[in-house]
Amino acid sequence: MPPASGAHARHEATDSCATCHGAGYSATTVNGGTHGNGQRDTAPAIGWNAGTQSCANACHGSTPWTPTATFTCTSCHGAPPATGGHTKHNTRLACSSCHGAGFSATTAGATHRNGVKEVIASVGWNATSQTCANACHGSGAWSTSATLSCTSCHGVPPTSGEHREHRSRACSVCHGPGYTSTTVNAATHNNGIREMATSSGWAPSTRSCANSCHGKEKW
Ligand code: HEC
Ligand code: HEC
Ligand code: HEC
Ligand code: HEC
Ligand code: HEC
Of 3, 43, 63, 78, which residue is the least packed, with the fewest Cβ within 10 Å? Predict the structure, then answer.
């Protein structure tokens, strides 16, 4: 209860008898209308094919009914899924950044498949409004189309270093082609590296520049 046959044991923790056998079935009750009728009744939703002993269902696609059938991470959902802001974050953030320890594109943590979509507290996730309120860029809607303004993540220009003294200069003078106060070079922006044009003579170790504007200066 359930029987040891097929993949019963593998489903016991997450699915009720009714999910696969239809309404009325549980570990202690049966559907009097179909039980003991000489047929092994399954719910249409699981797409059971008695001939091939496999199902074709919404849970994880077609799978053989055996205790040894294996799944890939993408049998049940994308890794990452195409939902919300996954695609937008995937090049920068690991699954664990939002879903917590143990999660990666190829490994699942201890809380996986418990019926709850785990998101760690620091993301500030609000499942009702489908938004986060976090340290990365403040509040944001979890959607494929949400856009952030330039000042969502940093000032334009930031208050750091000597930005203020140089505000009459275009961003591109120091950061290279493509950067203005309203546009970025998509190929290098937000890649974890603060891009500086070679002509600025920027030396990260001394945090100074050596250029044709005014010689060597501390930032
Ligand atoms: C994930 C889907 C699934 C769940 C959950 C499930 N079953 Fe099954 N069950 C099946 C399939 C598929 C068969 C095989 C049907 C066939 O051979 O035509 C089956 C067959 C059976 C049989 C017939 C004997 C046998 O071993 O084939 C019994 C009895 C049974 N299930 C009882 C249960 C009970 C009791 C529960 C809940 C505690 C349960 N099942 C939960 C899918 C499921
Ligand atoms: C920027 C944060 C973030 C990152 C990075 C992230 N996720 Fe998610 N993920 C979420 C949020 C938010 C949800 C929606 C939670 C909810 O609906 O309650 C979610 C939901 C999911 C779900 C549940 C199904 C769905 O589409 O809602 C799966 C599966 C999932 N993520 C897998 C992954 C995998 C695999 C990775 C890494 C390759 C990953 N996620 C990276 C934030 C993230
Ligand atoms: C049998 C189906 C199935 C397979 C296989 C599967 N997942 Fe999931 N996964 C789910 C479901 C369902 C959820 C939704 C949340 C829940 O129920 O815990 C989920 C949620 C997630 C989440 C969001 C965090 C969470 O637990 O809520 C991540 C990340 C994830 N899966 C990664 C993976 C990775 C990596 C693999 C491969 C090692 C994998 N999944 C294989 C069904 C599956
Ligand atoms: C005079 C040169 C100069 C100009 C002009 C300039 N920056 Fe910078 N910027 C720098 C330097 C130097 C750094 C520090 C690089 C480092 O830490 O490696 C920097 C860093 C940054 C950073 C990274 C975060 C930080 O505070 O360090 C951002 C964002 C940034 N600049 C945006 C802008 C924008 C937007 C403009 C135009 C409105 C602009 N900058 C104009 C020199 C300049
Ligand atoms: C999602 C957060 C985010 C948004 C939105 C954002 N930036 Fe940035 N920006 C960063 C980060 C983080 C850096 C630090 C360097 C890096 O990671 O590439 C940066 C760096 C920069 C730099 C320094 C050059 C570089 O790439 O290192 C400039 C200039 C800049 N941003 C301008 C802009 C402008 C203009 C906009 C709006 C069109 C904008 N940013 C929107 C996160 C963001």
Answer: 3
- Indicate if the pLDDT at residue 58 is higher than 90: no
Helix extents (H) in the chain: 8-11, 17-21, 86-90, 95-99, 171-175
pLDDT of residue 9: 92
- Asked if 36 and 95 sit in the same domain, the reply is no
Q: What is the pTM of this model?
A: 0.83
Pocket test for ligand 3, best of 15, 73, 106, 113 (most atoms within 8 A of CB): 113
Which of the four pLDDT bands, split at 50, 70 and 90, describes residue 121? very high
Cβ–Cβ < 8 Å for 181, 169:
no
Q: Is 197 in the pocket of ligand 5 (CB under 6 A)?
A: no
Q: Examine residue 79 and state whether it is found in any structural domain, yes or no.
A: no
* Same domain (yes/no): 4, 50: yes
Does residue 78 sit within a domain?
Answer: no
Q: Which atom of ligand 4 is nearest to the CA of 173?
A: 5
3-state helix, strand, coil in the chain (%, to 5): 20, 10, 70
How many whole angstroms from 103 Cα to the centroid of ligand 3? Answer: 9
